[in-house]
Every structure is written in C-alpha cells, then in structure tokens.
Amino acid sequence: QTTFNTHRKMVGTPPVPDDMKPKPRPTNELFRTLAGTGDKMPMNGLGMCCRYTAYDDVLVRRSVLWFLLLGGRHIDTAHIYLNHKAIGLGIQDAMERGIPREEIFVTTKVWPGYFGYNSTLEAATKFPEELGLEHVDMILMHMPKKFPLIPAKDCAGLSDKECRQDTRRALSELRSKGITRNVGVSNFKIEHIQEVEEVEGGAPVADHQFLFNVFSPPSSHETFDYCLDHDIAVTAYYSLGSALQHSQAATAATLQELADKHNKSIAQIMLRWSMQRGAVVIPGSGNPKHMEQNLAASSFELSEEDMGRIDELKNDELASEFMSQEDIGKMLQL
Question: Annotated catalytic, 81?
C-alpha cells in the first residue's frame, strides 16, 4: 500500500516514552456485541482520518501506540487513508509492550474504486498483510456507490445496487476465509442497507458507520434507530462535530451546564451521550491528553433527564450549523 512519508514536515504527536507501560483499560468500559460472531467491539475508539497526525507515518505509529498504552483498544481506519502500514507498526509496538492482539479491534474500509466482486477480493485480501495482522476485525464498504469520476472497473455495466451486492458477496467470502471476522457498511441510507441484505447467504451487516452526534437531524436518528432495531451496531464519526465545529459545541448552554454538573468537558458529555444511546465513537486525536480524556467518557453516566435534554439539541437552532449525514450525501453524490 502507498503511504505518506512526511516525517519532519509535520509535528504533533510526541514520542512515546521508552519505559511507558500499558495503563489499565477504561473504568466501566463499554462494548457492542456484533451480530454473526458475537465479537465485542470496544465502544470508544480512535479514528485515524482527517487530520495531519493520521497521515504522517511516524505520527500515525505514535498515535496508535499512545492510544493502546492509555487503555484504548479500537482503531478505525480505511484503505483510502493510506496509513495501514503505520497503524500496523503501532499495533506491533503495543504488542511488544504486553498488549495482547486479541484485545485490539481493528476496522478498515474498502473504497468504492475497488467495489465489485473480483476487485474487492483482490484489494481486501491484502489488508491484513498491510496492517501486519493475521486478520482484520471489521471491513466496511466505505460508501454506498462508486463515484462518477472514480469508476469501479469491476462494476462496469452494473447498476449501483448490483455493484453493492457484488461487493457484499466478496466481503462475505472474505469473512468465511478468515480475512475479516465481521463486515459492514458506511455512509449508507436505509434502502442501501436493505439492498445488500438481499444477498442470499451474505454475512450479517454487523456495523454501519455514519455521521452522528448530539446535533444530528431527525433523519440521522431514523437511520440510527433502524440499525439498532435490526441488530446492526452504529459507529458514529464526527461524534464531536467536524474538526472545525468543536468550538461551536461549547456555545450550547445545555452541554456547558451538564459539563459543569458532572465536572467533565463538553467533549466528554457528547461522547458519553452517544455511547449511552448505543453508538460506538471514534474521535480522532494525535494528542495523548485528549485521548485520555476521551477514554474517560466511560467513567460516568448521564441521568435520564440529562439524556433527554441532550436529545432536544437536534431541534436547536445551533444544530443547523453542524454538518450532517445528509450534507455528506449531497457532497459526495450518494
């Protein structure tokens, strides 16, 4: 796999001390049991996308090692992020310091340019080797359809539905071969999920990853509820809003009041709400202090009243300023 080798051009994640040993896993750590395998996916992970510390090979390796040594056990990436190798090296570093591989959950994704039965088999079969692992814990279809300017050659002449279904067949075969333990989808609409589930003998859709946070509109809550009703785990990206929106969340009086009440940060309140609703979160950070704070979101609970107050934020005027899954769909022509 092609990688970014930009060390010395980017700064951020500090070196991990040579004598640092693994810290205990988070207090009251939460897990999501996955359909089909019963695997338990840690509900507080590290997203390895969309920031410079997720692409520089040295900073990626450090980020993964920091996160695992601080008690985290779930790493989320994708083939298109071009950081498989560096993530794998970070995992190997952590294993050398005593963290068992079986405790680590690794998710990656197939890019639409590799959709189609043969192309998916060829591309995704290489994922474990690129990551330096015997298997991947989860492989997702990154988007529901191929892009007009980035065609999936293996889907030439096929409809988007047929392309999705052929890709699903390939992922199901990879699961049966042990390349991955679980398969799922990302950025799908409900009808897209239903279409891939039509594939006879297909592996269960174990997870759906999409944009979901306290400001997400009712349409996203509809997708969320559909998934939970059908035993499909939800992984929420941008659970704190996009990188440019973190400061906006601080202007929500409800979040600030609850942060003061629980003596937590607004980010921790937002993450806790998502997990307590049943979503897996994967906030991205190359900062060890932020990683530790994010992992601490499992150490407290929000009351039913607290949860209800946060639920109402989807109707707040501020919500319209936050990027939604609908915005992602329009931007990517999904």
Answer: yes
